[in-house]
């Protein structure tokens, strides 16, 4: 696995980042032991970069993997929706405590939409900059599904890292296509921002041409690394092979294609509509008093899950 410097940070990350959302309670819901085993396989395969978030519920898996591996060279990136200085301080220290470490690689403002939301999170960003100066984190930044937020973050000198949604078809980008996103990322990267992408397979829609989709992202010079959600050792092996332009066996390809992830709404949905409001891809609507998912539009971001008061949305 190749490693690269993430923009102007001193972080040397693998080209593939392990996206941990997929093993946690919002998706596969593996036991901590099984999830940690998969993370350890990723470490053994040369991946030294792992992405998580407060809302993913995957800190216990990463803690266990770090404890067993005794590795101190793993770069963990996490994120929080906190707005205030104090709440961001709580979230960062909760993350460090939950992972059993004293310092970490990257902490991001989660899901930024524009210059306005970044400004609105100003006190939280101020705390992260302070934490970077005090050595708790090495880099700060934003995650986003919008071109607009990438453009705004590129202009903020204190932001080190941008974690944008991008894939060859532009599926899931809220305010443009892949060309517009790439143009914004190029400007940001030229200014020294580290770029690690998300959703190269657009939540599974591009799995039928997975190798091509992954290589398209990896071949962009303005993208340093890409986070890929993985749930099994087989998926790790396949992603690493594709990243090196190698093929995997037909049998493995068939197996990966045969188990697409989909979002399901349970029968006890009360039709409150919270999830519909939260979804920006139009993948949910209320029909006859219940939320119904259109899996053709869903990019499996999981944002709707935490909005449901009845805990009835799951990704299988
Ligand atoms: S339905 Fe949920 S998981 Fe799918 S795109 Fe919408 S918010 Fe994301
Ligand atoms: S948030 Fe939950 S209860 Fe409300 S409509 Fe969506 S799935 Fe149903």
What do you see in this structure?
The structure is a single chain. It contains 11 helices and 14 strands. The protein is of the alpha/beta class. The protein folds into 2 domains: 256 residues, NADP-dependent oxidoreductase domain (TIM Barrel, Alpha-Beta Barrel); 53 residues, Alpha-Beta Plaits, CATH 3.30.70.20. The strands form 4 sheets. The chain has an 8-stranded parallel beta barrel, surrounded by 6 helices. Strand 7, helix 6 and strand 8 form a beta-alpha-beta unit. Helix 1 crosses helix 2, helix 3 crosses helix 5 and helix 6 runs parallel beside helix 7. The radius of gyration is 18 Å and the shape is globular. The mean pLDDT is 95. The structure holds iron/sulfur cluster (2 copies). The site of one iron/sulfur cluster (SF4) has 14 residues, from helix 11.
Short key terms for the protein model shown above:
single chain; 316 residues; alpha/beta; TIM Barrel; Alpha-Beta Plaits; 8-stranded parallel β-barrel; two-stranded antiparallel sheet; 35% helix; globular; binds iron/sulfur cluster
């Amino acid at each position: 696995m190749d490693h690269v410097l993430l923009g102007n940070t001193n972080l040397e990350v693998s080209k593939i980042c392990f996206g941990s959302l997929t093993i946690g309670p919002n998706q596969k819901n593996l036991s901590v032991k099984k999830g940690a085993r998969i993370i350890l396989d990723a470490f053994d395969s040369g991946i030294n970069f792992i992405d998580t978030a407060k809302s993913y519920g995957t800190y216990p898996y990463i803690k266990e993997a770090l404890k067993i591996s005794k590795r101190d060279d793993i770069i963990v990136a996490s994120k929080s929706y906190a707005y205030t200085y104090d709440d961001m301080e709580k979230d960062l220290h909760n993350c460090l405590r939950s992972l059993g470490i004293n310092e970490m690689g990257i902490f991001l403002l989660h899901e930024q939409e524009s210059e306005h939301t970044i400004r609105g999170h100003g006190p939280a960003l101020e705390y992260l900059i302070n934490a970077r100066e005090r050595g708790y984190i090495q880099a700060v930044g934003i995650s986003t599904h919008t071109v607009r937020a990438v453009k705004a973050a590129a202009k903020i000198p204190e932001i080190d890292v941008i974690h944008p949604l991008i894939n060859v078809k532009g599926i899931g980008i809220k305010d443009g296509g892949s060309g517009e996103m790439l143009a914004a990322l190029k400007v940001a990267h030229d200014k020294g921002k580290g770029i690690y992408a998300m959703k190269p397979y657009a939540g599974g829609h591009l799995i039928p041409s997975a190798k091509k989709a992954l290589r398209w992202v990896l071949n962009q010079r303005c993208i340093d690394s890409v986070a890929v959600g993985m749930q099994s050792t087989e998926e790790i092996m396949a992603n690493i092979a594709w990243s090196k332009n190698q093929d995997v066996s037909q049998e493995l390809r068939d197996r990966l294609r045969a188990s697409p992830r989909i979002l399901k709404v349970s029968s006890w949905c009360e039709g409150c509509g919270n999830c519909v409001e939260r979804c920006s891809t139009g993948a949910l609507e209320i029909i006859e008093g219940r939320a119904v998912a259109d899996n053709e539009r869903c990019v499996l971001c999981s944002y709707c899950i935490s909005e449901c008061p009845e805990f009835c949305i799951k990704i299988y």
